[in-house]
Description:
Number of helices: 18
Radius of gyration: 30 Å
Strand content: under 5%
CATH superfamily of the largest domain: Fumarase/aspartase (Central domain)
Distance between the termini: 49 Å
Number of domains: 3
Bound molecules: arginine
Number of strands: 6
Oligomer: single chain
Largest sheet: 2 strands, antiparallel
Structural class: mainly alpha
Helix content: 55-70%
Strand order of the largest sheet: 1-2
Amino acid sequence: MTEYTTHHFQAASTYTVSVGYDKRLYPYDIDGSMAHARMLGHQGIISQADAGAIVGGLEGVRREIEEGLFPWRDDLEDLHMNIEVRLHELIGAPAGRLHTARSRNDQVATATRMFVRDAVANAQTALRGVQDALLGIAERHKDAVMPGYTHLQRAQPVLFAHHMLAYFEMFDRDIERFADCGRRANVLPLGSGALAGVPYPLDREWVAKELGFDSISTNSMDAVADRDYVLEFLAAAATTMMHTSRLAEETVLWTSQEFGFLRLGREWVTGSSIMPQKRNPDFAEIARGKTGRVYGSLMGLLTTMKGLPLTYNRDLQEDKEGIFDTYDTLIATLEAFAGMMQTAEVNEARMQVAAEDSSLLATDMADYLVAKDIPFREAHGIVSTLIDIAADRKTTIAELSISEFKAQSLAFEEDVYEVTALASATARDVPGGTAPKRVAEAMAEARARLAAREAQA
Length: 457
Ligand code: ARG
């Protein structure tokens, strides 16, 4: 580490420089500039010859960037200045006309909206990948029964597939949240100028069409000052990461020796340097951990923006690192989960044993008594007593003798032994319930929904 001096800071005034990260916007910036130059040419604001020279020059810039030959310069601050200066070096005078009727303020908002639009599409694709993996594992273990939990206490038997489909639904809403964000992001700010509009006869609609925007912004001040499309992306990503983190936590629990429900494929676990028996679910843990930085980016930008007067302020440059990091984190996390779930092995036998735990069948025992005309409150008390008796004898209710049952209530008969985990799940035969028939229908419906989304994409 070099020694810190105030002189050092002043000499290398990198504080305001963003090109190190915003160069990532180059494809959008170049497309935006090409559309702008063409429109200026059509409108006679610049000559067609200059417009042609600019478009050709920008193609050259793109090639240089893609080939790693572009001479990025920190002293030019951001990617927009870098590209414009380089364009000038490549084509000379006409380059000076590109920035006619434009400001970096509407330029950067345009490029960022285009980034968000692509980020939305890619997030949705990655989400569908996780949905497909979840549906796949559900379909492969369609009859497996497991304990459903409340308060992380065994509560009622459910189908493993039902549990997986719960995540399918969460991720499905996430896809819709991203769609919603993408719809509002897809509005063209270019033509707003620095803040007040521009004194040239632009054809903004043409530019919008050329760049694939649905519409043009309706207020120039809003268009350059606002970043809520970034915030909406970050919020949708934070929600998706939250859902993924819950799945990650369950993966950590289920792969533990205590649960033993799940075993992850070799490539999704790591060993310990000192404990040879370990199969650590590091991907799941890191996904759970990375959720924090995504929330951080959301909180960071909300806080950055809260006191800004209209319109553009340089603070807004702080939107970039957060959205890039969030996008990268989100995609990597979703891809890891898709892979992890495709190869995970389910231990149906372990789940079954856990689901037969007597405390899980308590509600069904009470319902059994209710069916024999015992009031529910009374039935609840009788079953509590039976659970205590079974616990004292270190056994399950199902192991108690018929006389032990009858000692608590004469309503018990031999058919009490038909109260099993599968019977319990099968009885939950309402729409949205865990009865195998309902879950089979839900899986088929989910498959169809996923296929329809894929066809739309
Ligand atoms: N790099 C800047 C940003 O991301 C571009 C806009 C700069 N505009 C200005 N007037 N300084 O916000």
